Amino acid sequence: MVPEAEVRDVLDELQRLRARVPLLSGALAASADGLVLAHDTPGVEAEGVAALTAAALGVSIRMTDATGRGGFRELLVRGGNGYIATYAAGSSAVLTLLAEDRINVGRLHLEGRRAGARIGELVDTALERVERPAAATPRAAPPRPATAPDRALPQRPT
Fold first, then answer.
1. CB 3.0 to 4.6 Å from 34: which of 42, 51, 109, 138, for a disulfide?
2. Are the beta carbons of 21 and 46 closer than 8 angstroms?
């Protein structure tokens, strides 16, 4: 899992993003498999949104692969009362933004892509630091259970 210091940095980035874009009603960073890393989503169940994001991500990855459009970058859903935008955030995380219907979609994409890149750098760097010592240790130690709290995020299929 991502160390606590980096989780705090991700939360800070989400809060700065919401301050820059007033029509954002929520921001969530999650692993590709739907685990919440950090969120600023008042009135919205973050765990549920992260799980739904993972499901949508899976379909989106299959769609881009099946149509030859390359790796997943972003997904935009428009509902009757606003938008849900999901952006790739490095190699193993996603950023999901909830926005009001009046938002400038171009600005949403601009800010979402930038924040996704910053969050991706934070998460990927943290995971590299966590995985590097693990790769250097001998295999004599038993493997950690899948539920270990410091487990690295799973990689998205490419």
1. 51
2. no
Q: How far is 131 from 133, CA to CA, in rounded Å?
A: 6
Q: What is the DSSP string of 19-48?
A: HH-TTEEEEEEEETTS-EEEEE-TTS-HHH
> Residues 23, 26, 31, 33: is their CA dihedral positive or negative?
negative
Query: What pLDDT, on the 0 to 100 scale, is given for residue 150?
Result: 43
Half-sphere exposure of 130 (CA within 13 A, CB side): 17
Count the Cβ atoms, other than its own, within 10 Å of residue 107. Answer: 14
Q: How far apart are CA 40 and CA 31, in angstroms?
A: 15
pLDDT along the chain (158 residues), means of 10: 83 96 96 95 96 96 95 96 97 96 97 97 89 59 45 46
- Joined together, the tokens standing for residue 2 give 């991502």
Per-residue 3-state assignment (H helix, E strand, C coil) for 59-119: HHHHHHHHCCCCCCCEEEEEECCEEEEEEEECCCEEEEEEEECCCCHHHHHHHHHHHHHHH
Q: What is the pLDDT of residue 96?
A: 98
Which residue do the tokens 């600023």 mark? 40
